[in-house]
């Protein structure tokens, strides 16, 4: 799986996302484009687009959706601090791969929604229905889902939707069926301890489960490494520890 899967593209010309705190909003209003360029270094957690991620073996996508302020078209966008591509374009890219590879299965986890009203959710649900149709697996018991089952039913997509709308739509899996506990630390050792504990706990849940093998920068981390960015400040120094933990698991 990939974290903030859509963040390979960050639109520096876009407004700041509605979920950002007032301090960030003020920072951008004062420093403009320069501020957004610095933000991009910390917001872009991926370098490959959806097609390249799929080619590399990614089958779980972490998706965060937002409306854009004062957008007359009411488009839906991927967002992480700043706006990314249109949701429809990303879903089409994934669908093209699935059409070419009928035995492949993906998990689409819509886990954050920003600035969305009921009619925005209705628009997104209809978009999923129009695009994926019978490729989507209806919500059933997690333990019943195997590749053999999905192949027999010709299902290729499981959509997890962290909003009450999921309870009204048969092909949406409720968000609690894909829990993703978050360590919220910059310390690799604390992260590994958290992951070990959460693996023991997940066996009791009867659901799918995410182990978030990611470090999260604090405000002080960003200030100290403001010009360098996420990769140099956090990612590279912990990769060996994380890879070792994954191999052991």
From TrEMBL:
Keywords carried by this UniProt record: Hydrolase, Lipid degradation, Lipid metabolism, Transducer
Protein name: PLCX3 protein
GO molecular function, one term: phosphoric diester hydrolase activity
Gene Ontology biological process terms in this record: lipid catabolic process; signal transduction
SUPFAM superfamilies with a match to the protein in the record: PLC-like phosphodiesterases (SSF51695)
Species lineage: Eukaryota, Metazoa, Chordata, Craniata, Vertebrata
UniProt-listed Pfam families: PI-PLC-X
CDD domains: PI-PLCXD1c
GO cellular component labels: synapse
Gene giving rise to this polypeptide: Plcxd3
Stretches assigned to the Phosphatidylinositol-specific phospholipase C X domain: 1-162
């Amino acid at each position: 799986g990939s974290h903030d899967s859509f963040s390979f593209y960050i639109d520096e010309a876009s407004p700041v996302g509605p979920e950002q705190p007032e301090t960030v909003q003020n920072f951008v209003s004062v420093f403009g484009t320069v501020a957004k360029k610095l933000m991009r270094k910390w917001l872009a957690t991926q370098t490959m687009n959806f097609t390249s991620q799929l080619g590399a073996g990614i089958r779980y996508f972490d998706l965060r959706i937002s409306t854009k302020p004062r957008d007359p078209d009411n488009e839906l966008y991927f967002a992480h601090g700043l706006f990314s591509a249109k949701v429809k374009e990303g879903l089409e890219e994934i669908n093209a791969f699935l059409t070419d590879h009928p035995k492949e299965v993906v998990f689409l986890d819509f886990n954050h929604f920003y600035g969305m009203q009921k009619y925005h959710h209705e628009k997104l649900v209809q978009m999923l229905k129009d695009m994926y149709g019978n490729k989507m697996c209806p919500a059933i018991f997690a333990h019943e889902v195997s590749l053999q089952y999905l192949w027999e039913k010709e299902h290729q997509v499981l959509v997890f939707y962290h909003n009450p709308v999921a309870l009204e739509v048969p092909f949406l899996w409720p968000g609690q069926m894909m829990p993703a506990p978050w360590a919220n630390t910059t310390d690799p050792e604390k992260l590994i301890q958290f992951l070990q504990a959460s693996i023991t706990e997940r066996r009791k849940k009867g659901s799918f489960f995410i182990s978030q093998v990611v470090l999260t920068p604090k405000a002080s981390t960003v200030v100290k490494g403001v010009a360098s960015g996420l990769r140099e400040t956090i990612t590279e120094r912990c990769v060996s520890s994380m890879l070792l933990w994954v191999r052991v698991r």
